[in-house]
Write a structure and sequence with these properties.
heterodimer, A: alpha+beta, six-stranded mixed barrel, six-stranded mixed beta barrel, 21 strands, 54% helix, B: three-stranded antiparallel sheet
């Protein structure tokens, strides 16, 4: 529209021209020279009349004018493009709906998973300067676990001697009975160092924090969590200063923690369950002197400003020397081996979930790419149909940049619509995920769709068009208009080029779908293996009821033993019961680990690590849980009575390891190290191995002892605490719901106030132990299914397009005598060739990527051949199915009609 | 925008002349910058209120001319403003002293 101005450009004008670059190219093309000329006239005029001040004012006004007008010019153009794009999409609603739906699936899945990643990994822990918070453990070479909690004396010495920390605090969880408010209930109580809350940088919302004076076993004070305060006490502020009953002992409520305060955080293996209320940890004198025992306290510390983890590590090495020096002589060996690993607290909380979240994020990333390829496919197919329109616009003078911009705006419109729908989908997905996430992922309270997540979705909406919109747009723009016009009328080279591009996209889709499906397949195979894993016991028909005896009411060994005995007797007498027993641990939750020593006949060298799992039983525990007897006998009623010979039953693994010839019966073992003065026990039976933890945990050697033998009549705190958990098991022929009700009633008769938690069929307990794997498997399988469907859709789309474009060619072939089967093969061959390429790429990618998943698999190798074969066969079958409809349509082409199309 | 239409009332005018005319008509109260002026011109062109012509004596330069439609719009706008002012003048607050 405007003509170049030959006059030389002084510096000012060059600057003005640069300023004009803020306008859209089109605007510049239309008015740039004219504006430069006008500005020059204006400037000459002002310079002649006014001088420096007026010139400065002119410049300021000009710059301001450009800065305010240019965005408006862009906006006008965008509105124009968007309006045009909307009209064009409205003309083709089928295309728009499918494209938006595909993008919604991709963006929605990404948004949902990103909100998990954001809440768990990216959001800082909700405490003051969380980067300075660390967690400490104890470590001893040869111990059954790599890192374990602190014992009271070790904690005391480290806190006293380490110099890198502002403070250290210990905490551990316990179950307690909260009574006197409606029905009594089991609550998780955290015993915490009084310094814990100031260390975290938090304080009670009402009332006072713990004082140092509260850290005394005699002080009975409690801080309530906000949720419990609202639920059980109706958010009554006058509760402060009043007493509540915990384990049937009075505790004074001194405060309520702030709303949303969650501690301990979920995630760590030790003490990883948020507590409902908090009491001072108040180590007893016995605990403080308990060197070599009770390594069950979690430790959190705050680094001094400027101190690095490495410096703290060096500091802890010297603290370890101090600890070793203070261990009593008979435990010196252990004490001197101890070291204290240190990790950032955030890493301890979320570290175990990182791999799963990264895999899920990678998976949804692939789903999004597949969605983008699908939409790109659709757009390319559509661009075939739109070529005439674009060619006419181009001939009428629209520049290539203008056409690309137009097509790209349409892509952005699709993506924004897809993102809005995706946001709604993510909201739905999250609601579905969250119940599972609460039980399987750390920090569930931090997972939500917040502003940052919405920003991420917005970024996706703007980034995805780069993947699906650029290719079709560039292709349309790079071809000269004449070829576009020609291509729109006949099927020529440009049409073939488009088919090649479509083919490449389908190959990419298939490859991504293969990678995802192999990943999901490996998890599914792991899960199937896991589900088939033998627990070692017969869970079917067994119900378990867990209760913890409150120390206020059950203060002596005699009282605890009497309850165990009476509860088992009551359960055994219930209608339909075939066996009843009790133990101090729930099935799949045997936490007790103890050192033990066999007599001289054992092959001691076969078992250098003398720490085994221990369970204390009452009644017919083995029959009730269905643990098979391998040799000897089960415990009898009289075992454990005073004056009887002390007996023990070993697991098969333990018996075989120590007495490989199978002659363990009659030999003796004792608890503790060799110098221990605990009595010898005679092996009377060998039973089958059972899983002590979740299905994917390793089986460890185990010993069983009658509870009555272990607990003396006069035993008291703190030792009695290890036997206060009662797990009542009954095997019955009746439905589990009825059995559960009977168990509850039996317990109520013995102690009406006792809170019973977890009345649960044992198969359900087994099921619960694989929850987190079920979550990851189901999620990834869902994404893989979506990916496969989208890939199949892509194949279908391409073939349908090819058949439509080649109707004439097919018609000619049929007219020349080609059979239907040869035409069918012609089309399907194309699908199979694309799949073969996609498969090869995908399998190679899967081989490279699934190695990252090895930590998530169970008894399945990342290169598991079965998974790879099944996925390959499955994809090929799916593609064949997707190709059948277009291929069938090709065989139905009427040669005469096809030839008339010319 | 109305100021630009008024500035064009006497016949075809090029960019800088429009700027000066607007400034003169408003006694310097309204000073359009180059960017603002061409933003307005683009919209007037798009709406068909003005059209481009080669400037007299300099064919590299472009002038702008009110189309018949542009003239009608300018007149209608002037009449609307007049009527609005007449309405206001009925109240003592707006009467000329």
């Amino acid at each position: 529209m405007s003509r170049p101005d030959p006059s030389p450009s002084p510096r000012g004008e060059r600057f003005f021209r640069r300023l004009l670059r803020l306008f859209p190219a089109e605007f510049r093309g239309d008015f740039g020279d004219e504006m430069a000329r006008t500005f020059r006239d204006q400037r000459d005029d002002v310079a002649a009349r006014g001088g420096a001040g007026a010139l400065l004012r002119l410049w300021l006004e000009t710059v301001w004018g450009v800065l305010t007008t240019a965005p408006r010019a862009h906006w006008d153009l965008l509105r124009q493009d968007a309006g045009y794009g909307l009209r064009s999409l409205r003309r083709n609603p089928g295309f728009a709906v499918v494209a938006i739906a595909a993008l919604a699936v991709g963006i929605g899945a990404n948004t949902a998973i990103f909100s998990l990643v954001n809440g768990i990994l990216l959001r800082p822990l909700p405490w003051r300067e969380p980067e300075r918070l660390v967690t400490l453990f104890e470590h001893a070479p040869g111990a059954p676990v790599e890192k374990f909690g602190f014992s009271a004396p070790d904690f005391g010495i480290v806190r006293e001697s380490a110099r890198s920390f502002e403070d250290l605090a210990a905490y551990r969880n316990a179950d307690a009975e909260l009574s006197g408010v409606g029905t009594s209930e089991r609550v998780v109580v955290a015993r915490v160092s009084p310094g814990l809350f100031p260390l975290l940088g938090t304080a009670p919302a009402i009332g006072r924090p713990f004082a140092d004076a509260d850290d005394d076993p005699g002080a009975r004070v409690v801080l309530l969590g906000d949720a419990l305060w609202r639920r059980a006490f109706g958010a009554d502020p006058s509760l402060i200063g009043r007493t509540i009953a915990l384990d049937r002992e009075p505790y004074v409520v001194v405060g309520v923690m702030p709303r949303g305060f969650v501690f301990p955080p979920r995630g760590p293996v030790l003490n990883g369950e948020p507590a409902a209320l908090y009491v001072p940890i108040a180590f007893t004198a016995t605990e403080r002197g308990g060197f070599g025992a009770w390594y069950n306290n979690s430790t959190v510390a705050r680094l001094k400003p400027g101190v690095t983890i490495e410096q703290a590590r060096a500091d802890l090495a010297s603290a370890a020397k101090e600890v070793g020096a203070r261990y009593p002589a008979q435990l010196k060996d252990l004490g001197e081996k101890l070291t204290f690993p240190i990790d950032p607290l955030g890493e301890e909380v979320v570290g175990r979930s990182r791999r799963l979240l990264v895999v899920l994020m990678g998976a949804v990333g692939m789903v999004l790419l597949i969605c983008c390829a699908d939409v790109a496919n659709l757009m390319l197919t559509r661009s075939g149909a739109r070529q005439r329109e674009l060619a006419i616009r181009s001939c009428l003078g629209a520049s290539q940049v203008r056409i690309v911009r137009q097509l790209f705006t349409e892509s952005v419109l699709l993506a924004v619509a897809g993102a809005l729908a995706g946001l709604a989908l993510a909201f739905g997905l999250l609601r579905a995920f969250l119940p599972a996430a609460v039980e399987t992922l750390p920090r569930p309270e931090a997972i939500r769709l917040d502003g940052f997540v919405v920003l991420f979705t917005l970024a996706l909406a703007l980034a995805t068009p780069l993947f699906f919109g650029v290719l079709p747009a560039l292709r349309s723009a790079l071809l000269p208009p004449s070829s576009l016009l020609a291509d729109s009328l006949t099927t020529t080279t440009a049409g073939r080029a488009r088919h090649r591009l479509l083919g490449a996209l389908v190959i990419a889709q298939c490859a991504l779908a293969v990678v995802l499906s192999v990943g999901a397949g490996l998890l599914v195979r792991s899960f199937v293996r896991l589900s088939r894993t033998d627990t070692g016991f017969q869970a079917e028909g067994v119900v378990n009821a867990t209760m913890v005896l409150p120390s206020g009411r059950y203060a002596t060994g005699r009282q605890v033993k009497a309850f165990f005995h009476d509860a088992v007797a009551a359960a055994a007498a219930s209608h339909g019961a075939t066996a009843a027993g009790a133990a101090n641990s729930r099935p799949l939750n045997v936490r007790e680990r103890r050192a033990f020593t066999p007599d001289a006949t054992a092959d001691a060298a076969a078992m250098p690590n003398r720490t085994i799992a221990g369970t204390w039983t009452e009644g017919r525990y083995f029959e009730a849980l269905g643990i098979p007897l391998k040799a000897g006998r089960f415990f009898e009623e009289a075992d454990g009575e005073p004056g009887r010979a002390r007996v023990v039953i070993l697991s098969e693994m333990l018996a075989r390891r120590l007495w490989p010839n199978g002659d363990a019966l009659g030999h003796q073992v004792k608890w503790g190290i060799e110098s221990s003065r605990l009595p010898w026990m005679t092996i009377v039976g060998v039973v089958g191995d059972i899983k002590q933890g979740a299905l994917d945990s390793e089986i460890v050697p185990q010993a069983y002892e009658p509870l009555g033998q272990m607990v003396s009549d006069d035993m008291g705190a703190p030792f009695l605490g290890f036997f206060s958990e009662v797990n009542l098991l009954v095997r019955s022929e009746r439905p589990t719901a009825a059995v559960g009700a009977d168990l509850l009633a039996a317990v109520r008769r013995l102690d009406p106030e006792l809170a019973v938690s977890n009345v649960q069929p044992v198969p359900e307990i087994v099921d619960d132990s694989v929850k987190s794997r079920r979550f990851s498997t189901a999620t990834l399988a869902l994404f893989a299914a979506v990916a496969l469907s989208l890939a199949a859709l892509g194949v279908y789309g391409v073939l349908a397009n090819v058949v439509a474009q080649q109707t004439k060619e097919i018609g000619v072939r049929l007219a020349l005598g080609a059979t239907a089967s040869s035409v069918l093969w012609l089309v399907l061959r194309r699908a199979l060739v694309l799949t073969a390429f996609g498969l090869s790429l995908g399998l190679a990618g899967a081989l490279a990527l699934t190695r990252l998943m090895s930590g998530l698999l169970y008894e399945v190798r990342p290169n598991d051949a079965v998974t790879f074969v099944v996925v390959s066969a499955g994809l090929s079958l799916l593609v064949l199915l997707a190709g059948l409809a277009p291929a069938w349509r090709a065989t139905r082409v009427d040669p005469i009609a096809a030839l008339r199309m010319e | 925008m109305f100021h630009v239409l008024v500035a064009l009332a006497d016949g075809d005018t090029h960019g800088y002349a429009i700027l000066k005319e607007v400034e003169r008509l408003t006694s310097g109260k309204v000073r359009l910058s180059t960017g603002t002026l061409y933003g307005i011109i683009k919209r007037l062109l798009a709406d068909g209120l003005v059209r481009e012509v080669d400037a007299e004596g300099d064919e590299r330069r472009r002038s702008y001319l009110l189309t018949p439609f542009g003239k009608a719009v300018a007149r209608a706008e002037a009449a609307r403003l007049e009527a609005t002012i007449a309405l206001a003048r009925r109240k003592p607050l707006f009467r000329r002293s």
